[in-house]
Write a structure and sequence with these properties.
The protein is about 65% helix and about 5% strand. With about 200 residues, it is mainly α. The chain has a two-stranded antiparallel sheet with strand order 1-2. Strand 1 and strand 2 form a beta hairpin. Helix 2 packs antiparallel against helix 3, helix 3 packs across helix 4 and helix 8 crosses helix 10. The longest helix is centred in the C-terminal third of the chain and has 29 residues.
């Protein structure tokens, strides 16, 4: 029988987070460069064709599962977001995330946070299921105060990331650096769970 794997997470330090960021950049260099160049070329969000290109690229390369990309692009243009982006409005992410698709309102939190982050990485930490998983694990191990539901809307998610940053004295790091660390650690946690589940299935076969 396999021994259970140790899922304890290391205390984040400036050195550890920076090292994980460098690993992320190495593994995702082409994707990150492509998106950076696209957003730099089309900084504004008033031309639907330019916004559509950015929506499609972020959706595909970051796997945000947006199916109605044209509707989302129209929604962003209608919101007239450039001044809010420049101001780093936290509420903007929820505005972009909530979009009417046929008879339903979709809440595309992962996509909206990534769209804003690519335009203003210093203002918008990225929501991702792996990031959520990692934050929740750190919450349990190190006694952070946010609730699970706080990770499901952007304003409270933003506060949770700030609490994580403050708790571990990571103020010298950007949100982008912290994003990369949380994402990679979240991926690692899922891989551990799958390995453990596979081992348990073998043990009981």
């Amino acid at each position: 029988m396999r021994q259970p794997q140790d899922r304890s997470l290391p205390k984040p330090t400036l050195e550890l987070v920076r090292a994980e960021g460098e690993r992320f950049d190495l593994e995702n260099k082409v994707t990150e460069r492509a998106l950076a160049e696209l957003v730099q070329q089309f900084r504004k969000n008033s031309d639907t064709s330019h916004v559509l290109l950015k929506v499609a690229a972020i959706n595909q390369l970051y796997s945000t599962q947006i199916y109605a990309v044209r509707i989302v692009a129209d929604h962003i243009v209608e919101l007239n977001i450039d001044a809010q982006l420049d101001a780093g409005s936290v509420q903007l992410v929820d505005k972009i995330a909530s979009v009417q698709v046929r008879e339903k309102v979709r809440y595309n939190l992962s996509f909206a946070s990534k769209y804003c982050s690519w335009h203003q990485p210093g203002s918008y930490p990225i929501y991702d299921s792996y990031v959520e998983r990692c934050l929740w694990e750190y919450r349990g191990q190190f006694g952070l105060r946010f609730a699970r539901k706080d990770l499901w809307t952007y304003v409270s998610f933003f506060d949770a990331v700030k609490e994580f940053r403050d708790r571990f004295e990571l103020d010298d790091l950007t949100f982008k650096q912290i994003d990369k660390f949380l994402y990679l650690r979240g991926v690692g946690l899922e891989a551990q769970e799958k390995t453990t589940a596979g081992g348990n299935e073998s043990a009981h076969a």
